[in-house]
């Protein structure tokens, strides 16, 4: 996708960057993966903290994000390998570069402020845009397809499971009624349907009533939880002993996946307790560095309200040498 590189770099504050760097401890000559390049905030921090020859393999499914960051991070040109791929393919990406292990991996999940505010891809109800919501423009199904083609029950499930929306059923009924007259084309049409579906006295405080519906559809369109699950299984295996992985999530389902994966990787023997001796021989591969997730400081939340729901978890690859 062609984008105007002279477009002003959007004002961008990477989330929990200080905490992420504290865990990642970037050092010169290290190789790092930024699984979610976005506008380049965490990649930039890694290269500034590492302060010399470190390298970053920077992935993003959004080719616009890659173009923006290439431009913004041009001063680090020789240290960054920009790759327009899904992080669920981290194994194939590293294999194609003949890299067996890396010093650290960071993923700052979800959507970037650029995608939300200026991509024109219908992620937000703040502007009237065609319903799309694909972070990767090559994906087959858009939010328009889901809203107009899924059956009512499926829509309700998506809103409930991915948006934790208590009015899921009512919203699905209203969507179904509305599209029986004419297809739902834009973000504002959808936002108005949600507004009509929820009784006014139950409108949430401090956020738009359509927030959870939009979030749920975005997660479904981009297969976000499936991709995260695959990535979490693969990524720790590419860490050097002592290498660290840092994940910043914004949704309770994502955080649960991270927590459970780290817990699984940090537990050793899985034999039933009644066995006198271990028969599985399983060793833990990750030391869990955050038993409860870190959250942003009040100062950061005040400066950057998008950080509000962030949760950071980190783990370290165990060495058995
Ligand atoms: C929250 S933003 C990252 C912001 C970045 N850390 C920064 O400070 O600029 C998330 C980015 O991850 C990308 N992304 C989401 N899911 C992805 C996936 N499965 N594989 C690769 N990139 C993904 C999105 O396109 C988006 O650009």
Q: Report how far the terminal alpha carbons are from each other.
A: 47 Å
Strand content: 5-15%
Low-confidence stretches: 1-9
Query: Would you tell me which CATH topology of the largest domain applies?
Result: Rossmann fold
Features:
321 residues; alpha/beta; Rossmann fold; DNA polymerase, domain 1; seven-stranded mixed β-sheet; 13 helices; 40% helix; 13% strand; disordered N terminus; binds S-adenosylmethionine
Word description of this protein:
- The chain is of the alpha/beta class.
- The protein has helices at 17-24, 41-50, 63-72, 90-96, 113-118, 143-149, 152-163, 168-181, 187-197, 211-221, 224-234, 252-266, 298-303; strands at 31-34, 55-59, 80-83, 102-108, 239-249, 286-288, 311-317.
- Strands 3-2-1-4-5-7-6 form a seven-stranded mixed sheet, sandwiched between helices.
- Helix 7 (152-163) packs across helix 10.
- The chain is globular and about 65 Å long.
- Bound molecules: S-adenosylmethionine.
- Residues 12, 14, 36, 38-42, 59-62, 65, 86-88, 108, 110-112, 135, 227 line the site of S-adenosylmethionine (SAM).
TL;DR?
The protein has 321 residues and is an alpha/beta fold. The protein has 13 helices and seven strands. The site of S-adenosylmethionine (SAM) has 22 residues, from helix 2.
Layout: helices, strands, pairs:
Elements: H1 17-24, E1 31-34, H2 41-50, E2 55-59, H3 63-72, E3 80-83, H4 90-96, E4 102-108, H5 113-118, H6 143-149, H7 152-163, H8 168-181, H9 187-197, H10 211-221, H11 224-234, E5 239-249, H12 252-266, E6 286-288, H13 298-303, E7 311-317
Parallel strand pairs: 1-2, 1-4, 2-3, 4-5
Antiparallel strand pairs: 5-7, 6-7
Helix pairs in contact: 1-2, 7-8, 7-10, 8-9, 11-12
The protein binds S-adenosylmethionine.
S-adenosylmethionine binds next to α2.
């Amino acid at each position: 996708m062609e984008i105007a590189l002279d477009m002003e770099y959007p004002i961008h504050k990477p989330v929990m960057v200080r905490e992420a760097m504290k865990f990642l401890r970037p050092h010169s000559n290290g190789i790092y993966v930024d699984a979610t390049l976005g506008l380049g905030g965490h990649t930039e921090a890694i290269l500034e903290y590492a302060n010399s020859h470190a390298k970053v393999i920077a992935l993003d499914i959004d080719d616009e994000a890659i173009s923006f960051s290439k431009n913004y991070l041009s001063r680090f040109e020789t240290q960054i390998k920009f790759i327009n791929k899904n992080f669920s393919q981290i194994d194939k990406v590293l294999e194609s570069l003949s890299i067996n292990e890396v010093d650290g991996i960071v993923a700052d999940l979800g959507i970037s402020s650029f995608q939300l505010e200026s991509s024109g891809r219908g992620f937000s109800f703040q502007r009237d845009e065609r319903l799309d919501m694909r972070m990767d423009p090559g994906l087959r199904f858009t939010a328009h397809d889901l809203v107009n083609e899924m059956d009512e029950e499926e829509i309700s499930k998506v809103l409930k499971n991915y948006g934790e929306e208590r009015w899921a059923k009512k919203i699905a009924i209203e969507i179904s009624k509305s599209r029986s007259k004419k297809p739902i084309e834009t973000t504002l049409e959808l936002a108005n349907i949600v507004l009509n579906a929820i009784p006014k006295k139950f409108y949430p405080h401090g956020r738009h009533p359509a927030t959870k519906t939009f979030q749920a559809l975005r997660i479904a369109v981009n297969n976000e939880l499936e991709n995260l699950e695959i990535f979490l299984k693969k990524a720790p295996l590419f860490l050097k002993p002592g290498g660290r992985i840092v994940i910043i999530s914004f949704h309770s389902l994502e955080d649960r996946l991270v927590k459970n994966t780290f817990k699984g990787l940090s537990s050793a023997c899985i034999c039933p307790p009644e066995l006198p001796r271990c028969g599985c021989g399983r060793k833990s591969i990750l030391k869990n560095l955050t038993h409860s997730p870190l959250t942003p400081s009040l100062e950061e939340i005040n400066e950057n309200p998008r950080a509000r729901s962030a949760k950071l978890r980190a783990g370290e690859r165990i060495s058995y040498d």
